[in-house]
């Protein structure tokens, strides 16, 4: 069971509005907000997302093959999350659509290049 995922950023103030917008669509608030770290989630909910400058002080970089998947409630929310991501400076990695039997997803990257998707099963 995943408790949370943390992604690196080189500019927390610039990256936070991207995640605030996605979290608002998902109905998830900021649950932690400290100097250098923000997390979105619910204490009694599913996995959350954290965003931070790397602890070691080196620049944040993207992990090849690493992706965070955001569970949507329906195809319309997949589309909204994808649109929100692009409207907040994200880039397209594959527009929403069927990706095999029963899996519908849209793929995008955040401002630091981290790959995410919004998806539904079934």
From TrEMBL:
InterPro entries in the record: Glyas_Bleomycin-R_OHBP_Dase, Glyas_Fos-R_dOase_dom, VOC_core
Q: Which residues form the VOC domain?
A: 1-121
SUPFAM superfamilies hit by this protein:
Glyoxalase/Bleomycin resistance protein/Dihydroxybiphenyl dioxygenase
Name of the protein: Glyoxalase
Provide the organism lineage as a comma list: Bacteria, Pseudomonadati, Pseudomonadota, Alphaproteobacteria, Sphingomonadales
């Amino acid at each position: 069971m995943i408790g949370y995922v943390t992604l690196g950023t080189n500019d927390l103030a610039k990256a936070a509005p991207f995640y605030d917008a996605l979290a608002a669509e998902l109905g998830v608030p900021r649950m932690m907000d400290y100097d250098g770290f923000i997390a979105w989630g619910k204490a009694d909910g599913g996995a959350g997302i954290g965003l931070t400058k790397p602890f070691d002080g080196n620049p944040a970089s993207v992990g090849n093959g690493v992706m965070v998947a955001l569970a949507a409630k329906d195809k319309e929310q997949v589309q909204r999350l994808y649109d929100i991501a692009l409207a907040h400076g994200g880039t397209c990695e594959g527009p929403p659509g069927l990706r095999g039997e029963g899996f519908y997803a849209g793929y995008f990257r955040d401002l630091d290049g981290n790959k995410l998707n919004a998806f539904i099963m079934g």
